[in-house]
Design a protein that fits this description.
There is one protein chain. About 45% of the residues lie in helices and about 15% in strands. By secondary structure, it is of the alpha/beta class. It has a 6-stranded parallel sheet with strand order 3-2-1-4-5-6, with helices on both faces. Helix 1 crosses helix 3 and helix 3 runs parallel beside helix 5. The protein is globular, with a radius of gyration of 17 Å.
Amino acid sequence: MHLIMFDIDGTLIESCDFDADCYSEAIKNVTGHELNTDWASYKNITDAGILDEFISEHDLTDQRDFLHKNVKESFVQLVQAHLEVSPAREVDGAIDFLRQLQLRTDVEVAIATGGWEETARIKLHSAGFDISGLAFASSSDAIERTKVMQLSESRCSNTLFISKTYFGDGVWDKQASENLSYNFILVGNKLLHSKQIDNFQSPEAALIHLGM
């Protein structure tokens, strides 16, 4: 059995820009402070991880639980408002590619996102994805991306895999994959990587990188 795991933002959905804007706005609304959006400067590039580091940097640790709760609530509201006006779009071919993989008897599909579960599911639904029955984990479960991936894997119906692959779009996805000895396939062109696809319009191109 092969495990094929997916990131969401920038990988399955064209959501990086509006998602980042809503996230930054939510933090500013709740804390009054501007967020540094140089994502590479953070240790854990997940919704929960970035916020946790932001809280420490601004000496707000006595309000940590309050801020996590209220920033998330504000973020959910902002994402919902955006999607009501402009629904999320799949990365070309992503919905059909997931469906094809789910039909295979030698594959288990899973989702592991650095986003919070609430906004992740809202965006997937808006873009037309049906992930019912898929193993799923997010930064609502853990701050570190590697732990999110491990949790998603642990929630799969199978536990023995002959290969493990992660589709992602960022350098943090690549690093987490390397740390966990996952085969990494880059979606898009945000970095250089030997195994890369622009989108999922050609399932054959993705399957070649999977060795299937």
